[in-house]
Design brief:
The complex is a heterodimer.
Chain A (H helix, E strand, L loop, with lengths): L1 E3 L11 H4 L5 H17 L4 E5 L5 H10 L3 E5 L9 H15 L5 E5 L10 H9 L3 E5 L1 E5 L2 E8 L2 E8 L2 E5 L11 H10 L2 E4 L1 H4 L14 E6 L8 E4 L2 H20 L11
Parallel strand pairs in A: 1-2, 2-3, 3-10, 4-9, 5-9
Antiparallel strand pairs in A: 6-7, 7-8
Helix pairs in contact in A: 3-6, 4-5
Chain B lengths: L5 E6 L10 H16 L1 E9 L7 H4 L7 H8 L4 E6 L8 H15 L3 E5 L2 H14 L3 E5 L1 E4 L5 E7 L4 E6 L6 E5 L16 E4 L12 E7 L12 E5 L6 H4 L1 H8 L3 E4 L1 H5 L20 E5 L5 H4 L7 E6 L5 H5 L2 E4 L2 H15 L2
Parallel strand pairs in B: 1-2, 1-4, 2-3, 3-10, 4-9, 5-9, 12-13, 12-14, 14-15, 15-16
Antiparallel strand pairs in B: 6-7, 7-8
Helix pairs in contact in B: 4-5, 7-11
The chains are: A alpha/beta, B alpha/beta.
């Protein structure tokens, strides 16, 4: 399982989900898919993430859920990576830490940047077949069959291993972390941390330097919203709402809201 | 071919033409951008019998037909067309290879791709092959003083928008959220050039095999296009109380949406799910009933023009995001609103 967890390139600070130590919902569905495949077919699961030292918590959570080991890619030189630099870094790490791997499972997107780009780009980097946005996976020998809903087409696809799959967050309902497992994951988890040097990565190809895109500004579309708060009994609030916004509501629903202006 | 003139390419994602006109929307924006950097607008089409698609457009244009004619009528100066039986169904690896080869040969300045499921994966792979950057699901495209494409991409669940540029690498690539731009009206008199690109001889077989594809048209009206959405969460209290939202939506000419816990509890169909792995909505008014506002949900509501949130907890994230935050029991307020609407809609 690979999870894209970069830190904020602008400020160098952690993104919130990461600080809370949560696996992205889609990445968690990917891990769940991996656990089910292991139950049926055997194998070993390595959880990999890239991020600051704190991202180790995500790996502990993955191990508590059943992953066999974790690999953390952490190096200030990797920070600020766009999806292309991220997929490059992940690919080289997978080649080194998991030689002869059969399958790479990723969440289809993170919940912070939601690009959905790292999975497909990772398949390109690893030069293996890959399918995105998968809802169902079944493995039979060296062949994987997948189902997905893509642009109103329900598709059934097949590929031979090794291959890469990105999994939607609706795919599998993930299991809960067993408490004992969580404890064990914190006591004795098999986690290795790799930096750019230990992976032999060219610093020009990772992090900010290896990124073709550059963020020049960040704005908030929320700015300028008024956030009017209405309180009282439901009836009173409905009255206030119609008094102030009857045109807006009437316009949207295409009906004229004729109200007696005199209050009851 | 076009030695001096810059080119802005738009990927012709025609498969969902009748549901999703994002290609036409991109052609329209490409035209506006092209004026600023003196470029021509090219559509790129891979398929088979592409003139069978979009038949209503055919009759209007004496010279061009099908997808090609439609794209020219909507703003393309030129269409690169590869039409071959091998391309009868969308095929990721083949399409990526064709785009890679064409872009390496013609060196466009920009490639704009609709952020459909196919488009997002396709764009990721093409950008990787071309060694360039890519911004995802953009909600705005501008040209800055240096002539660079400013790519406005939402992140952090749409609570923030990043302005991204690709300073050095070319082409500048983006995927764009459907509905972001307005298409130019169909102009049957527009003309353009069609460049037929033959399929390469040594085309490898796709490693991903398409076993089956059934078209799954969404039934009924589409919540993605609804002007009013009434969305409910666990705060509605029960499945029975949740049903009131359907009555409200009916009165408001709207559609009902739901959060993940509500769908899991079987208060609403999966079709109604708003959020990650569900639908993305952009109504003029969103009523949000009893929804706390987890980022996986709110990220898909950010394009709502006006949000009215109802929650007992004034500090819920959804309440903070709302234009109007109503501190009340969601179910009781829903009842009061239904009564009032029945009284005053004429």
């Amino acid at each position: 399982m690979v999870s894209e967890l970069p830190w904020d390139p602008a400020t160098g600070t952690l993104r919130r989900e990461l600080a809370e130590g949560m696996i992205n919902p889609a990445c968690r569905a990917a891990l769940e898919a991996a656990l089910r495949i292991r139950e049926a077919e055997g194998g070993e699961i390595t959880a990999i993430t890239m991020g600051p030292r704190m991202a180790e918590e995500v790996l502990r959570e993955a191990i508590a859920l059943g992953a066999d080991r974790g690999v953390l890619l952490s190096d200030p030189k990797m920070s600020g990576a766009d999806t292309s630099a991220t997929s490059f870094t992940l690919a080289r790490a997978i080649e080194q830490a998991c030689p002869g791997f059969d399958m790479v499972l990723c969440g289809f997107a993170t919940s912070d940047s939601e690009t959905a780009q790292v999975g497909p780009q990772l398949a390109e980097e690893l030069k293996i077949p890959g399918v995105g946005y998968v809802d169902e996976i079944s493995v039979s020998g060296r062949t994987v069959r997948m189902q997905r809903l893509a642009d109103n087409f329900l598709e059934t696809l097949e590929m031979d291993l090794p291959g890469l799959i990105t999994v939607t967050s609706g795919a599998n309902v993930p299991r809960h972390v067993p408490m004992g497992g969580l404890q064990a994951a914190f006591d004795s988890a098999d986690i290795v941390t790799l930096d750019a040097a230990s992976l032999g990565l060219d610093p020009e190809r990772i992090g900010v330097k290896g990124s073709a895109t550059k963020i020049v500004n960040v704005t908030s579309p929320m700015a300028g919203k008024k956030n009017i708060v209405l309180t009282g009994t439901p009836k009173r609030i409905v009255d206030q709402l119609f008094e102030r916004f009857d045109d807006k509501i009437g316009g949207a629903i295409g009906k004229d809201l004729k109200r007696d202006k005199q209050k009851s | 071919m076009n030695s001096e003139k810059k080119a802005i390419w738009v990927f012709g994602d025609y498969r969902n033409y009748f549901q999703n006109r994002v290609t036409l929307q991109l052609l329209s924006r490409a035209r506006e951008l092209a004026v600023k950097i003196d470029a021509e607008v090219c559509a790129v089409v891979f398929g088979y019998w592409t003139d069978e698609w979009v038949n209503d457009a055919l009759s209007h244009n004496p010279t061009f037909s099908g997808v090609v004619g439609e794209y020219i009528a909507h703003g393309a100066d030129m269409v690169y067309l590869t039409d071959h039986p091998r391309l009868a169904a969308y095929s990721m690896e083949t399409y990526v290879l064709l785009m890679e080869r064409l872009a390496k040969r013609e060196k466009p300045d920009m490639i704009l791709i609709g952020a459909t499921t196919f488009g997002r994966e396709f764009a990721s792979r093409v950008a990787k092959r071309l060694g360039t950057g890519l911004s995802a699901d953009c909600i705005g495209l501008e040209i800055n003083e240096e002539g660079l494409l400013v790519q406005r991409a939402p992140f952090f669940g749409g609570n923030l928008v990043a302005e991204i540029v690709t300073p050095v690498r070319r082409p500048q690539m983006v995927t764009v959220r459907p509905g972001t731009f307005q298409e130019i009206p169909h102009d049957p008199l527009r003309t353009g050039k069609v460049v037929k690109v033959p399929l390469p001889k040594e085309l490898p077989a796709d490693r991903v095999r398409l076993i089956r594809a059934e078209q799954h048209l969404p039934r009924g009206r589409k919540i993605e296009d609804a002007k009013v959405v009434v969305c409910g969460g666990r705060g509605m209290g029960s499945k029975k109380k949740f049903q009131k939202l359907f009555e409200l939506a009916e009165l408001l000419n709207g559609e009902v949406g739901a959060t993940r816990p509500v769908v899991y509890a079987d208060w609403a169909d999966h079709d109604a799910l708003i959020g990650q792995a569900g639908k993305h909505i952009k109504p003029q008014i969103l009523f949000s009933f009893g929804i706390s506002g987890a980022i996986q949900h709110t990220a898909s509501c950010n394009d709502a023009k006006f949000i009215i949130a109802i929650n007992k907890n004034p500090n819920a994230a959804m309440m903070k995001k709302a234009d109007v935050a109503i501190v009340a029991d969601a179910s009781q307020f829903c009842t009061a609103l239904i009564q009032e609407l029945k009284r005053c809609i004429r």
